[in-house]
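Table S2 (text version). Query chain:
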Amino acid sequence: QVKLVESGGGLVQPGGSLRLSCGASGIIVSLYTMGWYRQAPGKQRELVATITSGGSGGSTNYLDSVKGRFTISRDNAKNTVYLQMNSLKPEDTAVYYCNAVRKGVTDITYWGQGIQVTVSS
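Corresponding structure-token output:
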């Protein structure tokens, strides 16, 4: 059974930092393109950051509004993906979801349950 479990969310003041973790079981994260999505109330879910598969890193991609503030990374030994979020803004408030995709003849996609991040003074 595949599980993606997010942790590290919470309430933070504007300008603060949080690090989200996505611990995976049942899959090997280095074989998947891993991503973080977010969904704010009344808005569509949007892609925040991705890191491609690969044993020693992988290429990354970011939503324009988080470039320079957020960093996605992967620890293959811990089978975990991280999202370091710095200089947080109130508009970053959302439920953040971990995502794993493996493309092939049939795409395989998994989602975490989501974790709340609230940026407020």
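Notes on Table S2: The longest strand covers residues 94-102. DSSP finds no helices and eleven strands in the chain.
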